[in-house]
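#dry-run=false #mode=assembly
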Amino acid sequence: MTIRQPREGGRARSGGRPTLEEVAARAGVGRGTVSRVINGSPRVSETTRAAVEAAVAELGYVPNTAARALAANRTDAIALVVPEPEGRFFAEPYFSDIIHGVGVALADTEVQLLLTFASKDRERRRLAQYLAAQRVDGVLLVSVHANDPLPDLIDDLHIPAVVSGRRSATEPLASVDTDNFEGARAAIAHLVERGRTRIATITGILDVYGAQRRLDGYRAALSAAGIEEDEALVEPGDFSEEGGRRAMAELLRRRPDLDAVFAASDVMASGARQILREQGRRIPDDVSLVGFDDSAIARHMDPPLTSVRQPIEQMGREMTRLLLAEIAAIDAHRPQTSRLLSREQVVLPTQLVIRSSS
Amino acid sequence: MTIRQPREGGRARSGGRPTLEEVAARAGVGRGTVSRVINGSPRVSETTRAAVEAAVAELGYVPNTAARALAANRTDAIALVVPEPEGRFFAEPYFSDIIHGVGVALADTEVQLLLTFASKDRERRRLAQYLAAQRVDGVLLVSVHANDPLPDLIDDLHIPAVVSGRRSATEPLASVDTDNFEGARAAIAHLVERGRTRIATITGILDVYGAQRRLDGYRAALSAAGIEEDEALVEPGDFSEEGGRRAMAELLRRRPDLDAVFAASDVMASGARQILREQGRRIPDDVSLVGFDDSAIARHMDPPLTSVRQPIEQMGREMTRLLLAEIAAIDAHRPQTSRLLSREQVVLPTQLVIRSSS
DNA sequence: ATCACACCTGGGAGCGCTCCCGCCGTACCT
DNA sequence: AGGTACGGCGGGAGCGCTCCCAGGTGTGAT
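#status=ok
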């Protein structure tokens, strides 16, 4: 007969960290009780709780997340998935604000945020694997294009998810979006009020639903003002500065008499401004310029840019709130209960910030 | 006698994902064999391997990371800890490049990168908890100040860690750094060569070791050139644009006759340039300007900025390489083996990129 | 034909936790 | 006094995996 040696508690790295059982022994209680204290269950007497807490403090006990995840089937982590290359991620203040909002919403929870990039196809596949391996309880998806298969894939995996910016009018996932239509409409109405009549627009990438909605708002406002549409005044951009320059040059070529430009992003407005300057147009005397996002660029532009503010940080907060709610809902569900997830669609208002460019 | 119902496989969320056991049954082999195949062990016959792989594919099996982490005591994840507020993180191209390098080094591993911010004290504590909970196998620390307790804390936890930028000449942790001294020395030597003699410097935050080294290099180069030191030509900045402006103004006030400025970062150089312009100094005719980092700012400045390039992406790669090596080393160690971690110190060379500002 | 040895393989034990069943004791009712 | 709740608690079972031992099978040497 062979006596098996106990396995030496995993790898050397475990470094002899205390376990639940050790805390229980120290406090003179059972494992279950310690677990209840750790998880804040009310079904523990005050005295016992105090004893356990003392033992936890003395031993410097920290629950092992892997064990907890395995036993409870939850990870207390959510992922923010960015389907863009790192470069763009860092370039756009948008992401910084979103993350900040998420951070705020997570501040008084125990939930950890993971950042994941998934621009290339290979990374996509890895991400799918990652999610299937149940490493997170839910997913926040930002900057999703209309034809991106990722959201549906995530949905198929039955992983709670919230997207920022609907992909279409009938977004099947829970989403948080800003009122792009109304924001654009207000911007144009403002230009009309200023007496502008030949108002051009540089659109975003139109397979992004929000960009499409901004264009819709532009059109609606013109028609409401009784101004006839003119396709020569609409030029697609790609949300980049270079795209803004290109589109602006093209618009000026086609309609040298334009008297206002609505760019679907501040970055594009900045590009447009360069071209206007180069061609000797004064802003706002000759041409009014309005952007979208109200980013730092808008405030620092010369002249300061009128822009449509999106409450991006709030979007981050809302997304997180929705996601945590979805996760909680699933947790509460027993299999027999019918699955009526909210799939809430939140639309946040925009606000026109008027500066001297218009 | 009561028959206990089996526990229904955790929560509803588990969504009936296949387990190792199910794959084993399907392939007609034992658990151990499937595990070996999944982990690429060579001790499996070709036929068996094929059968298992088929079963894995059919069932769409993905190993559960929590279970694996618990059993093997490793998570296959590392954390990049940024002890700065999100804002600065996004503002500095530095981080973007580091992350890119890390991504490259991780590309053909199964290791996942987590991004963590820990600027405020509260976040620090949470981070410590997080790390103690063994959620990552190791930590990359960037942008560490000399007096930051975080690294030592992490070291006490016996978690493998690599810092970017030593905190002192005798950094106890493994580290990757650039040769700040030599970079600064070369920049000054270049200015001397250009015939400049009254060379000022705007330093970084001097409790950052790298900033101190740049100042040391500045001094060494001057003394090597036989130029007498003049403390009126040294003004501390804080790595910000505003700090650069402030320091430049102060330098011009004290020494209106200066003929060159070496700024310890491109951002500060950009601030300095504004003040030089405002005061009517021509660059480089009246004053030569040199920066540090060779960031995008340097290339886009008017005139383009001479700057010391740091191989930041390579730093990210090196850091990751060191960290993975440390983790592997610990993994291989049995407790009885003495702990001789390398604690390697890598110093990467810098390169002076000469443009028209000098 | 026998033995030694390699190579594969199955499955027990255990990682540290959560969940839940059922026991114990006390307080309250009849 | 006995019965009945109920809050508090202990500990068994199990989450899905890895590790490792022992056993089986096949090969080549004796």
